[in-house]
Design goal:
The complex is a heterodimer of chains A (about 110) and B (about 250).
Chain A lengths: L1 H16 L7 E3 L9 E3 L1 H7 L23 H5 L33
Antiparallel strand pairs in A: 1-2
Chain B lengths: L2 E6 L8 H10 L16 E5 L2 E5 L8 H5 L5 E3 L5 E3 L9 H5 L6 E2 L8 E2 L5 H5 L5 H5 L5 E5 H14 L19 E4 L19 H8 L2 H32 L5
The chains are: A mainly alpha (about 110), B alpha+beta (about 250).
Amino acid sequence: MNALYAASALLALVALGAPMRLPNVVYDKATDAPGPVRFDHRTHAERVANKCVSCHPQTFSILRPTRRASHAEMEASRSCGVCHDGKVAFGVQDAERCETCHDTGGGR
Amino acid sequence: MSVGLLFDATRCIGCEACSAACKEQNGLPLPIEPETTAYTFTTVSQREGLNVRSLCMHCLEPTCVSVCPVGALSKTAQGPVVYDAKKCIGCRYCIMACPFGVPKYQWDRAVPVVGKCTLCSDRVAAGLATACATVCPTGATMFGERDALVAEARARIDASPGQYVDHVYGVEEAGGTSVLMLSSVPFERLGLATDLPRQPLPMLTWQVLSKVPDFVALAGAFLYGVFWITRRREAVEEARRTEGGGPR
């Protein structure tokens, strides 16, 4: 019995160690944005203990990748703003921290 | 050729991407309930240290299809067992008949229908994989031709015999299902029915139903015979009374 549990735990580890298909999402640079945004899927998944249902499908479609996100949405507690509200995760209004999300091409 | 799913419980991390994708694909209301309902077609639950999916097994010869009096359920040539709410009269015989307890009823609605996984029949018809298999990040749920999936499952067991129970669930259960499962723990401990006959369940009733026409014909002949004899006796009795001057 214990051996089986040990085997299961080992298998779980093997499963976790297996490469996960978590496509990153790139939001193209909007006209008034400082740069494009590359969403790191893995980091976000780890934050929610690999529970995809933390964001899917209520906040983001899981079948059709989101291509656009606006600060207006986020400030209305939608899109990234569901978590990035300054409480659960850093807020998106901080003018000093654009580069946390936006790739500004090394200050160009 | 028909399609199916291979679910490998040893690869599932319980992320519930499948449940999320299912909700979205079928336009079902949130939340994802802990057990399958008429609004949650697939769930992931933890058992014996493994994550196990619960969904329609899509029997090769489905009992739900055989018992439905109005043909609301049907097995498509591609594999999915689909449901047509427009035909359904709400008798819920399918719910009673399913050996896996899959179809669920909308008990909270004034005009309820049955809810169950349809193996994304629309996507499959369009040449796509099911929503759950499409989003599965670890490949625990795999979509493909059923024959190829059976071969893949056997290959996984052969490649690492110690890692798996030497059985592909769904190859023979209830006559075979389009959804197949692999596990490192005996299937009954994952809450799966393992006492199912290896013959398709509709065969049980077919053995009786197929004899109904013969029975009707034979019973008809027998009853006519009884009627003929009775009438003959009455005629003879009547004739005897007439000849013998009638009763006193």
